[in-house]
Please model this.
Amino acid sequence: MACLNMVKMRNFEEKTLKKNEECTQDGSVDRKGRPAVRERTGSWFAAILILVNQGLATLAFFGVGVNLVLFLTRVMGQDNAEAANSVSKWTGTVYIFSLLGAFLSDSYWGRYKTCAIFQAIFVVGLISLSLSSYIFLVKPEGCGNEKTPCGTHSGFATAMFYVSIYLIALGNGGYQPNIATFGADQFDEDHPEEGHGKVSFFSYFYLALNLGSLFSNTIIGYFEDRGTWALGFWASAGSAIVALILFLVGTPRYRHFVPSGNPLSRFCQVMVASFRKWKVAIPSNGDELYEVDGKENPNNGSRNILHTQGFKFLDRAAVITSKENSFEKEDIKSPWHLCTVTQVEEVKCILRLLPIWLCTILYSVVFTQMASLFVEQGAAMKTNISSFHIPPASMSSFDILSVAAFIFIYRRVLDPLVARLKKSPSPRGLTELQRMGVGLVIAILAMIVAGTVEHFRLKYKDNDCPTCEGSSTLSIFWQVPQYVLIGASEVFMYVGQLEFFNGQAPDGLKSFGSALCMTSISLGNYVSSLLVTIVMKISSSERMPGWIPGNLNKGHLDNFYFLLAILTSADFVVYLLVANWYKYIKFEGRNDKVEGCQHV
Model:
């Protein structure tokens, strides 16, 4: 009897505990679709798994990407300009696929399922590349290093190579924007402590990304530079497999947001409804426009967005005409005739984000030089310390160390200092837009420094060398300042972008917000490829092989860097105007109670 009473008492205590468990206030759910319990889901436990996953996946990706330009020249037989263009196009495709991943995540699959599927594709691509390199491409054995280029390849081997690297592009591209947003989903922004953790997460996310690439840029990069390409690719594949397993291990602890449906249809509904009512007068008071209560929001519980001025022609989509006010028919009150203010504001939000996004593309042109022309420039410098050879691609380690240092400096020193100088009640100093502007300024300095280093490299070149590799007496360590400046600019630009686009995107488009950051890198790569092609066409003549020839000693890469500095300066002026025009999105407050939970 006593035992029975103890069991009853324990059951009673467990039920009481469950009733008093605090659930998240942001509408997140667990894997079974129930309101997420704060203590048992999300927060830093889930976030750390995601950060480690990101670090390992990045190691795998850059194990291929960082030396791809050298693989194309030494193994696939491309010249420098062709290889730089191929890398730019491939990297651009990676980030174009981020739009596909974001669309599937926001609309249908949710972030967890999207991340899992695209990571699996990523693993398949890496295994395929490893096999094709080992069996077909790195032949004869021992080729692919600095001194021994490989022979020609069959059409099948070449096709296998391109299928493999574009499977890697698809897998990594579809995964990247969603893993960043999924990590942020693990923090309840309406909770004081977790809200602060969400802001910190993006810095740690970018740090994890860079620490992952540190290993690939040094250890894997070193072995690949010596011609052991298959070993490097297998190491990348192994890292990606471990990353996927770790991601799946955290499944019971993750918080989720329910997909909100196809955003393209919502966008089209606003455009169609506003054009239908192009003669309708727009009320001066936004309160007269059509809106539903937050609980009735058709986008799976997303927050309502408050009405803003600007793009007033779109407000017609939310104007309630006398015809719509008189009838209750579904075809008249359908979203193709009448849209909510929140739906209209979603479209306005995207239209406001686009000019900011466009201004970040030229920064990405600067950033992408690190994976192409910086490597080729380094290869044309003195790369030996005594008998030890320094792989040119491994110099990007200084960029990674710079990112790690400046994340700490910004979070611990600059941000609190600026907040005190501004006398702001908020603990945060610079806004995301201000940080992105600082990133552009530092990028300009990086290009000026890179151009200056190239000017002196040419001054100490060997005029009689048949190729440009190792043909200058100027040490490769003179590249350190340009890598450090690029790293510092990333902390301000890319971390600021992640926070800005995630924070300013509507609830149903969070992955799309992160994808905007990725696609700016994508278009930056395509613009870089286009710019190289145009510059080579204009600068080439009978006497001059162009600014970026196969032998850099016969070109003027310094002029190309200075051109980028000028273009980025012009972009910075436009950015200042656009950032001053931008209006921040404002959400309606959430309900204090989450159904099925007791908040304590």
